[in-house]
Amino acid sequence: MNQKDNQHHVVIIGGGFGGMHAAMKLRKAPVRITLLDKRNFHLFQPLLYQVATGGLSPGDIAYPIRSAVGRVPNVTVLAAEVMDISPDQKKIHFADGDLSYDSLIVATGVVNHYFGHDDWSEHAPGLKTVETRSTSGAGYSSPLKMPNGKAIPASGAPTSTSSWQEAGRQGSNYPEPFPCWPIRP
Fold it and tell me: In terms of CATH, what superfamily is 7-106?
């Protein structure tokens, strides 16, 4: 049995802000850390809206978890999706095996909350993943729709004037003017 096997084993589920922060806080502690995430990258969610509007590419806001904690000697990163947790046995179950732990930190992120109006989710999708960005962003980058809900025809000038501007904490964030078309009589 080597020295690592005798160390207190902390398992962190989630490679987002919470999981990464916990791993970095424990980097000098005399513990062995296993950081689990079903993806191999950390996503900087506050900038997802800029990816959805075309201002940034997904690669600008996502980076490998291993690159963030790779030089920390007591952290091991595993790409695995947790299927179940057995707190009495102190085990985490995956599709292809189990992992024992001494301490467990669950930092799996947040979900969208619609204040008791889950029907709003159809019209106001959350922006939490790159995949969500693809579907949400489709509304921004696809052909504009007219007030009556019909798509602006691709073969000719639209029949209304449209402009769109987005502002965030830093002010205007859209990279260039959004095209506007003249009103047709």
Answer: FAD/NAD(P)-binding domain (3.50.50.60)
